[in-house]
Amino acid sequence: MRIAVAGGTGQVGRMVVEQARAAGHDVVVIARSVGVDLSTGAGLDAALERVQTVIDVSNIQTVSKSASIHFFETTTRNLLAAEQRCEVRHHVLLSIVGIDRVKWGYYQGKRRQEELVLAGPVPATILRSTQFFEFTTQSLTAFPGPVAVVPWMRAQPVAAAEVAAELVRLAEEPPAGRVAELAGPEVLAMSSAVRQVARSRGPHKVVVSVPWPSAAGLSMANGGLLPAGPGPRGILRFAEWLSGMPQPPAPQR
After folding, report:
1. What are the residues facing 34 on neighbouring strands?
2. Do the Cβ atoms of 130 and 157 come closer than 8 Å?
3. For residue 15, how many C-alpha atoms fall within 13 Å in the half-sphere facing its CB?
4. What is the distance between the alpha carbons of residues 242 and 11, in angstroms, rounded to a whole number?
5. Does 248 map to a domain?
6. Is the sign of the CA dihedral 163, 3, 124, 113 positive or negative?
7. How many CB atoms lie within 10 A of CB 132?
8. DSSP state of 32
9. Residue 180 and residue 229 in contact, taking contact as beta carbons nearer than 8 Å
10. Exposed / middle / buried, residue 212 (Cβ in 10 Å: 0-12, 13-18, 19+)
11. What's the number of CA atoms in the CB half-sphere (13 Å) around residue 56?
12. Does residue 245 have a pLDDT over 60?
C-alpha cells in the first residue's frame, strides 16, 4: 500500500514512517522540510499521487485556542481537499483522549479537526491516544532553569512507538470512524513520572506539581484525560520504558 504520513518528521510521525516501511508499505512523508506545506496546500497534490491512505499526525505547539483551531482547521481542510482530488480512500487521524472533557485551548483545535474529518469527503478512522511516555521528557525541557512545573494530572501514558504501530494497523484496515481509545497499561500521577525521568535520565531539575487554576486543570487532576472505556492497551510499562527496554511492535488487544 502507498501511505502518506502528514507530519512524518515529528516525534510520532518518524515512528509511523519507520513502522509502515518495515511492514512493506511505500511511504510518502508530508512535511515542510520535504517541500509539502499543509498550511498552504503547496505540494500536496504531487505528494498524494497514487496514495491510498493518509495517516495524519501533524501538530502545533500552542496553548492558544484560536491558534490551535486556526492551524487544525486550515491544515485539515487543505489535506482533505487534496485527498479528494487525488482519490485517497482512507484518512487516519491521531487525536487525544479526553479532549471533549478537558476544555483546554489546544484541545479545542483537535476537537474541530475531528469534526472536519468525520464530516469530510474521505472515509476516516480516528484514534484517540493518551499522552506519550515521551511527554515526561518534554515537561523537563520545555523551559530553561532548575525547576520544571507540572500540572496536577492523572494520566495513563503509552509509548509513542505503540501508538505508531496501532496507526499503521488501522491504516491497513477499512475506515471505521472513531475507534476505541488507546492508552498505556497503568494510571500514573504525571508529576511522579516526570520526577522519575529527572532522577534517572535528566535533565536533573526540581519538579513542582501545581493545580491549574481553571476548569481544564480541575478536569485533568480528576482523571479527565483517562480513557472512558475499554480499548487497546500498551504493553510497555513506564518503568520499563524508562530503563530503556526495547519497545514492542504493537499494543495488546
Report:
1. none
2. yes
3. 18
4. 17
5. no
6. positive
7. 21
8. G
9. yes
10. middle
11. 30
12. no
| Contact in structure between 88 and 51 (CB atoms under 8 Å) | yes
pLDDT per residue over 195-220, tens digit each? 999 998 888 899 998 887 788 888 98
Residue tagged 518503568 (cell numbers): 239
Domain count, the chain: 1
Residue 69 included in any domain: yes
Cell numbers for 215, please give them.
476548569
Write out the residue range of the structural domain in which residue 83 sits. Answer: 2-242
In a domain, 252, yes or no: no
87-118: pLDDT as tens digits? 999 999 999 999 999 988 999 999 999 999 99
- Please, what is the Cα angle at 167 between 154 and 94, to 5 degrees? 55
Contact 44, 78 (CB under 8 A): yes
Closest CA to 170 of 20, 51, 12: 20
Amino acid letter, 179: V
Q: Is 86 a member of any domain?
A: yes
- Grid cell in block for residue 133: 511516555
| Antiparallel, parallel or unpaired: β 26-30 and 2-6 | parallel
* Residues near 185 by beta carbon (within 8 Å), at least 6 away in sequence: 233, 234, 235, 236, 237
Q: Specify whether the CB–CB gap between 30 and 36 falls below 8 A.
A: yes
Instruction: Retrieve residue 35's grid coordinates.
Output: 517541500
Q: Domain of 39: which CATH number? A: 3.40.50.720
How far, in Å, CA of 90 to CA of 38, rounded? 18
- The pTM assigned to this predicted structure is 0.93
Q: What is the identity of the amino acid at 41?
A: G
Kindly tell me if the per-residue pLDDT of 252 is higher than 90: no
The alpha carbons of the chain give a radius of gyration, in whole angstroms, of 18
